[in-house]
């Protein structure tokens, strides 16, 4: 049996790691496919793997999806239901930054390496006349490290993926104050399939029906997608890409 | 092209009555109460139109701030939101840029159903499908107060120039 390759974009919360393995095990069994799971540790590693040209299925973040669809021969077939990509801007709870307006030029932002979070955060800061060049940037290994930096006062502000922020312990969250949380709603990760992939129908059938039984529900719960996946058509994907084009500048 | 827009309902509060004439030759009466609605924090206001500027999609944030029901928006000309303080030249530039396949950015004062208004930083992109433009997507973000103030001054001057 041919072995296919699936790649998961690296920008998920570490606690979802087991969920992706459960997901892959289940869909292999149900679609009767051999699927090797690739989980790159960084954006650069992801790009390197995709460029080798042997990835048939990608769970991609929306900004990568634009390029993959328009330039690299992938098409969007599904997305998680009710799970849009959002971000949070926080300061230390005991700092004098209580709103976006309190962020001044020269402030330091701590964040893990995630250009989508950075881009959306910068769009939100436009409303208070703060641009990328007005800020100092500290890129941390993890989101937790970014939280520690702002709690210790080494950075004034931290950017997080909203899902990761909400997964922090109560103690960590109590030491941070949320200045804004995005509510973009229309932008999410998407499941892409390479043009010409021969087993699209059986793979889609397995993925779209995961929420219909206990094993599938367990995997989806681990992924933070309790409602499962919904099918996407070409126009759904093009709409999202158009929308994202407006956020690039 | 969508049906001509009916006159706006007269608000209960004091409001300036203005007759608007659009590029397609139709006119309607609108009211301007001068009241500004705050932009919803963290959200994008999204709409799509066909090639003629007729609304084909509006998101929840669009509906909520505009004060209209979805049914009052879909199928109507996008200029249902046009505020009398906006100079014609701004829209001319928008449509010329988008029709040429380019992205357009600008600050826009929009009129709500009840005569209040809200400011946005709008980006319009053409929806290109298989090499052909089939419509336009407009996405609005929250503008800063300083940018709004600059736009107020600029648009007032442009309006003055247009009205001679």
List the helices and strands and how they pair.
The complex is a heterodimer of chains A (249) and B (164).
Chain A: E1 3-8, H1 17-31, E2 34-38, H2 43-51, E3 57-60, H3 62-71, E4 74-80, E5 87-92, E6 108-112, H4 115-125, E7 136-140, H5 143-152, E8 157-161, H6 162-167, H7 170-174, E9 176-181, E10 190-194, H8 200-208, H9 214-222, E11 229-231, H10 234-245
Parallel strand pairs in A: 1-2, 1-3, 6-7, 6-8
Antiparallel strand pairs in A: 3-10, 4-10, 4-11, 5-8, 5-9
Helix pairs in contact in A: 1-8, 1-9, 3-10
Chain B: E1 16-21, E2 27-32, E3 45-49, E4 55-58, H1 60-66, H2 70-73, H3 88-99, E5 104-111, E6 117-129, E7 132-141, H4 145-163
Antiparallel strand pairs in B: 1-2, 3-4, 3-7, 5-6, 6-7
Concise overview:
With 249 residues, chain A is an alpha/beta fold.
Structural class given helices, strands, pairing of chain A? Answer: alpha/beta
Mean pLDDT reading of chain B: 94
The spatial strand order of the largest sheet of chain B comes to 4-3-7-6-5
Oligomer status: heterodimer
What overall geometry of chain B do the principal axes of the alpha carbons give?
globular
Helix content of chain A: 25-40%
The largest sheet of chain A, given as strand count, sense and whether it forms a barrel, is: 6 strands, mixed
Low-confidence stretches of chain A: none
Q: What's the helix count of chain B?
A: 4
Q: Which spans of chain B have pLDDT < 50 for at least 5 consecutive residues?
A: none
Q: Tell me about the largest β-sheet of chain B.
A: 5 strands, antiparallel
Per the principal axes of the C-alpha atoms, what is the gross shape of chain A? globular
For the secondary structure, the number of strands of chain A is 11
- Beta-strand residue percentage of chain B: 25-35%
Number of strands of chain B: 7
């Amino acid at each position: 049996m041919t072995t296919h390759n699936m790649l998961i974009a690296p920008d998920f919360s570490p606690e979802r790691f087991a969920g992706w393995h459960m997901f892959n095990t289940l869909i292999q069994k149900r679609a009767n496919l051999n699927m090797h799971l690739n989980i790159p540790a960084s954006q650069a590693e992801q790009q390197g793997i995709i460029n080798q040209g042997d990835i048939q299925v990608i769970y991609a973040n929306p900004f990568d999806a634009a390029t993959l669809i328009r330039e690299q021969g992938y098409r969007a077939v599904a997305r998680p239901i009710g799970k849009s990509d959002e971000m949070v801007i926080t300061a230390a709870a005991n700092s004098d930054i209580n709103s976006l307006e309190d962020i001044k030029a020269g402030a330091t932002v701590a964040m893990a390496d995630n250009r989508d979070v950075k881009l959306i955060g910068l769009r939100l800061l436009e409303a208070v006349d703060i641009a990328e060049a007005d800020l100092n940037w500290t890129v941390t290994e993890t989101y937790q490290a970014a939280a520690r930096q702002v709690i210790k006062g080494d950075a004034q502000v931290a950017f997080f993926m909203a899902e990761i922020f909400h997964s922090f312990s109560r103690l960590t969250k109590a030491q941070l104050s949320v200045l804004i949380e995005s509510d973009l709603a229309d932008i999410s990760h998407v499941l892409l399939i390479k043009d010409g992939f021969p087993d699209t129908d059986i793979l889609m059938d397995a993925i779209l029906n995961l929420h219909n039984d206990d094993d599938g529900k367990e995997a989806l719960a681990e992924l933070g997608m309790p409602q499962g996946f919904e099918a996407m058509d070409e126009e759904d994907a093009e709409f999202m890409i158009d929308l994202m084009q407006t956020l690039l500048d | 092209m969508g049906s001509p827009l009916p006159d706006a309902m007269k608000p209960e509060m004091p409001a300036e009555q203005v007759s608007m004439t659009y590029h397609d030759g139709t006119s309607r009466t609108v009211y301007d109460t001068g009241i500004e609605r705050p932009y919803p924090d963290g959200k994008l206001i999204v709409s799509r139109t066909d090639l003629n500027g007729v609304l084909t999609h509006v998101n929840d944030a669009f509906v909520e701030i505009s004060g209209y029901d979805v049914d009052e928006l879909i199928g109507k000309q996008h200029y249902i939101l046009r505020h009398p303080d906006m100079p014609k030249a701004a829209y001319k530039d928008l449509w010329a840029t988008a029709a040429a396949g380019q992205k357009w950015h600008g600050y826009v004062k929009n009129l709500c159903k009840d005569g209040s208004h809200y400011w946005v930083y709008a980006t319009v992109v053409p929806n290109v499908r298989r090499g052909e433009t089939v419509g336009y997507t407009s996405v609005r973000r929250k503008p800063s107060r300083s940018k709004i103030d600059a736009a107020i001054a600029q648009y007032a001057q442009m309006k003055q120039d247009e009205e001679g």
